[in-house]
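Board notes (copied after class):
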Amino acid sequence: MKLTHAPLARIALASLFAIAGTAAQAQQPTYKIAYIDPLSGPFANVGELMLMHTQYAIEDINAKGGVLGGMKLQLLQFDSKLSAQESQSALQAAIDQGAKAIVTGGSGSSVVTALVLAVARWNQRNPGKELIVLNHSSIDPEMTGKGCSFWHFQTEANTAMKMKALANYIKKTPDVKKVYLLNQDYAHGKQWASYGRQLVGLARPDIQFVGETLHPIGRVKDFAPYIANIKQSGADSVITGNWGQDMTLLQKAAGDAGYNLRYFNHSAGSVPGTVTAVSQAKTGQLTWVAEWHPGQADTPKVDALARAYKAKTGKDFLAPRIDMTPRLLAAAIAKAGSADTVKVARALEDLSFDSVVGPVRMRGEDHQLLLPQVVNTIAPVDGKAVKTGWEGTNYGFRTDAVYTGNELAQGTDCKMVRP
C-alpha cells in the first residue's frame, strides 16, 4: 500500500495561503487624507485640537472595518503655519504622498480659499489624480457662494448662518443696545463685522453701532487700547470674530479694566483656554454659536462620543463637526462604492447623514452642510442652567437657543461648474 502525507500537504498549503493572505493585506491600498492646519505659532493649540478630533474619528472608522470592505484611512499631517504659501507647499507634499482628500479649516478663510483654488488647478491639469477639500472651520460664505468649487465641501455652518442664529437671539435680548464691532483684519473678520451690521441691524433696527475696528490677526499682545476705545464709545456689547489667542487676550484686557461687556462670537467656546479666560476676567458674557456645547442637555450620542474620546485621548471633546468630517467622507465612499475622487464628490452631494448632533445634509447646489446651531453663553455654574464647570473652573455653558440647519439656511450665488 502506497503511503501519502496528505495532512502535511494540507498544512503546507494552508501555510502558503496564510502567507499570501498576510502579504496581500500588507499591500492593500490605503485611502490617504492630508490634514493641513496650523501646528505651530499662536494658533497651534487650535490646530492640535482639530488634529486630535480628526485622528480619533479616522481611527474609529478603521477599527470598525475601514471603507470599501477593509480599506483603511491614513492621515498625513502638515503644518500650514497659518500661511497660504506654506499650505500650498503642504498640498504639493500631500499630492506627492498620494493623498486623495484634504481636511482643513483652522488656517483662516483666506488660506483655505487659496488651498481650494490650488486644488482646482491641480485637478484640471491632472485628470484621474483629483483631490477634494473638506473644510470644517473656515466659514466664509463666498466659499459656498460666488467662489464655490465642485472640489470643496463645507462641513461647518457659514458666517451668515451663525450670525443669523445670533441675530435671532439678540432680537429677544433688549439689554443689547449699543454695539461695537472689533474683528481681526482678514477676510473672515471683515465678513463677521459686515454680517453683524446687516443681520443684527435687520433683527433690531433700534440698535446703535457705535464703532468699528480691525486689528492684525495673531499679533496683538495687549488689547487694553482696544478696550479703552470700546469703553469710550459707550458700547454695552461687542460683535467679534476673534478666536484663539486673540479672544483670550481680549477677555483678559476687559477683565483687567473691569469692563462688563457682552460678546457675540462664532466659535470661541470650542477653543481651549477661552472658558478659563472668561472665568479669570470675572466680567462680561461671551455668547457664541456651534453645533453643540459641552454640558448641553438631551444629547446622548454626543455625550457618549465625548466620554469615549476623553477615555482614549485624555482631552476634552469640543467639536462634533470635526469628528463628523471624516465620517461624512467615509459615508460618501461607501455610497459611491469607489475611492475615485469624482465619484466620491458626487456621492457627497445631497448626502444625508445621521450624525451625533442629529440629521445633517450636504446641500448639493453649493456644498454647504446644513447642521443645527446652538446659541450658548459661558456662565458660572448655578446647578440649573449650567450644571458642570469646564477647564477646571466654575464656569460652563448655558443653552440660550437652538436652531436647525434648515432654519438658518441662506440662499446661494453658487454657479457650480462640474466635471
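Comment from the instructor: The two ends are 71 Å apart (CA to CA). Residues 25 and 70 are 9 Å apart (CA to CA).
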